[in-house]
Structure formats: C-alpha cells, structure tokens
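Reviewers of the previous submission asked for a worked example of the structure-prediction workflow described in the proposal, so we include one complete record here. The input consisted solely of the amino acid sequence. No template or homolog information was supplied to the procedure at any stage.
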Amino acid sequence: MLKKNLSDIFVKLLTLCIFLIFFSAISCAEENIPVDVVKKIKSNLLQSRPDLKFDSIEKTKIPGLYLIRVDSNQFFYVEKNGEYLIVGDMYQAKSFGFVAVVDESTLEMRKNSIKKVLKKNMIIFPSPSKARDILYVFTDVDCHFCRKFHNDALPNLSSAGVEVRYLAYPRAGTNSESYKKMASAWCADDKNKALSKLKNGEIIDEYICDENPISNQIDLGQKIGITGTPAMLTEDGTLLMGYRPANKLLEIIANH
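From that input alone, the workflow returned the following structure tokens.
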C-alpha cells in the first residue's frame, strides 16, 4: 500500500514538474512583453482563426511588432493589437543584399526539413570540381527569373564550387501546365537535360510518372515559407527569395 502511494506521489510530482517547465518556457519567451498585449494578440487571432494553434510571442527588432509561433513550425509577424499581421520573412538590408531575419529554431526547422529530401528526388547540377557548398533552389520552369538563374547564375555557381539542387515548385499548382512540364522533367531518364530544355523554352515529351515528388516538394516549400520562385535555401537554413546574380549568391553563401 505504501509502495503504491509513493508511486502515485512520484507520478504527480513528475506531472507537476513537466507542467512548470512547459509554462516557464512560454513565460521566458513572453516575459518582456506586457501580459495584456499577449492576451490581446492571441484573443484576436483566435477569434479570427480558431483552427490554428498560436504559441509563444517574441519581440522583434522593430518596436511594436511581434513574432508569434503558429502550429509549432510556422510564424507570423503581428502588431500589438493582433489586428494586422504579416505572413513571411522579415528582411534586413546588408551590404550584399536583403537577408531574411529569422531565429535559430526556424533555421533549424528549414535545415532539417531540406535534409530529409532524398537526392534522387532532386535534380542536381554538380560542380565540375569538388563541391564546397550546396544551394537548394525551388524552381518553376515557367518563371522568367528561374530561367535567368538557370542560364546565367548556375554556370558561375558551378564553376565556383557550388552544387545546385533543384526542387519543383510550380506556382500554379498541380493542375497546371507548369506541373505537367516539371513532372515530365522529374520523370525523364535524363532529368538534367529535360529541365534545361524547359528552362530554354523547349518542349519535352510529356510523361507524368506516379512516383514523381512534386506535390511533396510544394508542401515542403509552403512549410518552410516559400511564396514565390526562384527561392533558394542555404545549408544553414537561410531562405533567399527572388533572383540574385551569382556573385551576390556567392557572397551570401560565404557569410552563412
């Protein structure tokens, strides 16, 4: 009987410890934010979207603008009343271009997510020499700047020791002509040749295999915050939206 009582006490104490650790973690993230601001933000957001789970709120470098975590791996920027919000990355102007401002956990999420993609599901353009760096590129064959990246930036990146790994992100979705073209490239015997033809406006044979990974790559892109193409991800999880020439990309890669 005594043994059972001690066991019950231990379970209750353990539960209490977990509870305290959980809420202390939340309070640490929100400790410098007025309680009424936290309540107001979450209340307004929940009223608008009760289907989402709003987690901790953190200050940003912009006064009055907060970062709130959503469903564990996403985030919004929101003002103090919780009425107006911004979805997507905040950028900081650096000497070599705009760089997304994100916290370590977001970088880690992106980095771990991209590492789970099998190499066979990407179209890889290796460097002629031993690759020093890897750049992941979400692309759409009907995107002008994606074509410009492929024809102008890619050759210079390759010669500089950067391996480019393409993932598909047809902006018009899986019911589009872009999807059919890209699925045909991903299902081709010579994927690199097929993709290069599409990037040059050429036509390839349509062949949409059942095992093509494009739907999964669209989901992945949305998960890590991609809203357009080209979108590039460095090995440390830094997300770069939009076209950049090779020299700018090499400078960014060197700083990450």
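The longest helix spans residues 2-30. We consider this example representative of the routine output the project will generate in years two and three.
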